[in-house]
Known about the structure:
The chain is α/β, with parallel strands linked by helices. Helices cover about 25% and strands about 25% of the residues.
Amino acid sequence: MSKGLNAMQLAQDVYGEEAMESLGTALSSVLQQGGVVFLEGDLGMGKTTLVRGVLKGLGYDGPVKSPTYTLVEPYELVNLDAYHFDLYRVGDPEELEFMGVRDYFTDQSLCLIEWAEMGRGILPDADLVVSITLLSQGRHLTFTGQTEKGAEALMELGARLTP
């Protein structure tokens, strides 16, 4: 976290796949300048569905699948390069060095990372962390801004989500 910045949080409950994708679309509106987003949650929590909504909101209209076996799936958008990482199968963070992971993190990229803890020590700090937990009939998402960029994105997202 940047010095002098207290982590900012926002919470949202969603019910169903369509609602998760819609939340991702809303999130995309505050990620148009890129950044690093960690997506935390157990298997089946909807991380990839959220990513699908983000990419859809950024103008991508093709299929979005979890890159469990490829580790990263690139998406070339009009003004941004987006990368969806799934590090679930990474055995050692050093594996990321061999694939040149640092090259993905530029000022013109949005990196959406599932299972970021598998890359600890190699990955840059997240601007935004999205934690997804199970509710009885849905999902509870907690968004935490960890940098100035992340905090600004959350303030804007909060304004968009408030009726």
